[in-house]
Task: structure prediction
Amino acid sequence: MLLQLCAFDDTSGGIHHGTLHAASAIIANNRFDGYLSETRAPGVPLTALHNDVLLLDKYYFHVPDDPEYAVVPTFRHWQFPHNRIPQSWTELGGSTRAPAATAAHSDMSFAVRLRDSKCRVSGYLEGLQIAHLCPQAEEPWANRNEMGKFAVNPLAQPGHWINNALCLRADLHFAFDQRRFVLLPKSDKLVVHVLEASRELLRLYHNIEIQPSTNGLGVGVAFLFSRFAWTIFNCTTNTSFSRSTDRRRLAFYNPATKETINETIFMSDVPKLDESRSRSQSPKKRLHSNRSDPTERREQDQKGCEALLRDPAPASLPRIPKRKRESSISLSSDDVEENTHDFTRASREASESLSSSRPFICDSQATQQGQPCEEQSCPDVNLISEAARIQALREEALCKERKSSDVNNVYEEEQSWLEKAINRPHSAQSMTRLLEAMGYEILTD
Result:
């Protein structure tokens, strides 16, 4: 089984013929010349018209002269069918009028709201959001398939194409991105087609024509069709075909040759496209991710120290002669033992050093056990001063970076709380917060 769709177009269970045919053809690598039948073996095509409702539980899609046709495994491997979109879709574009003015890409949201003025599905005027047809996460796919030629403002980035977006109420925007419904043509109208058994969506919106905009359809037919394909490929993820461990004939995009190839391979051997690691916008989470790789962090710190040594020092900090620079500082076993067990004192010193506005530099007049530094053996004073200066500059740069990326002032609030909470007793919950604010990563089962 390649595809499974819910049948809500008839009270007894049925699905729109044109919808099922277009979905099957997309998965079969844009074979719109294919046909549906009631038999597994190629035979007589269905005599149903485009807008007829099919009532059987199972139908078979056949491609002329190719009984073992290749199928596309994922949306990102699918190639947009330029100049081959089904007629029922292209006829929708006849109701679109040219926009009165083209807004700059920075004003895309304003232009879409001005064009639509209300939710295109419900007609509501409040709680509106901008929903993209071709999702922003699929920008590499859009660029690879030259979708910019369909945009009214093609010089903008894909996320700012005006006719690739429409206004939806917030809850409908969420359902739209969850692939719970899609927009497609039925009886020469663009209607809502619900894809899952949602009593509310079915009762209120299924087969309901979308609200008009100030320039007719308002959105691009090509983007509507790409959204339909993006949604349909999600309906193939839990089928027996996608779970198969046998070799299958697949049509997939090959980034090396930049073309779609047909090959009989295992589903697991299909190359993944445009995969990227998720990046959190939380400053705290970014700090945790940096701590997860101490080796990488040490290398970055070393590079930062080398860069500081090459750059001119600030006027307030004297430059250390090259002959007195050292590459590292070693701690004695006593120092390590003291810093390991005296947790409270070490945390307090760390908090004070972070909150201090001036760099911590070993002064020549500093005393130890009541004796001047000059009377003791201090061969590494310059070394300590250099290390402290570098640490101060590093902390200052890190603080600026945190403030610039912390738009919600989460980091500053945590540091303010830390300064006040460092010396008082804590519950288990506040102790967890204290450790996280000090830079420790708390692992939970």
Summary: The two ends are 39 Å apart (CA to CA). Residues 285-361+379-437 form one domain. Residues 381-405 form the longest helix (25 residues). The first strand starts at residue 15 and ends at 16.
